[in-house]
Amino acid sequence: MYQPKLEKDIRCPLEYGLDLFGGKWKSRIICVLAEQKVLRYSILRREMTNITDAVLASALKELIADGIIQRRQYNEIPLRVEYSLTQKGLSVVPILRGICRWAGAYHKNTGTATLPQCKKCDYGEKTE
Question: Apex CA 25: angle with CA 22 and CA 28, to 5°?
Answer without folding.
Answer: 90
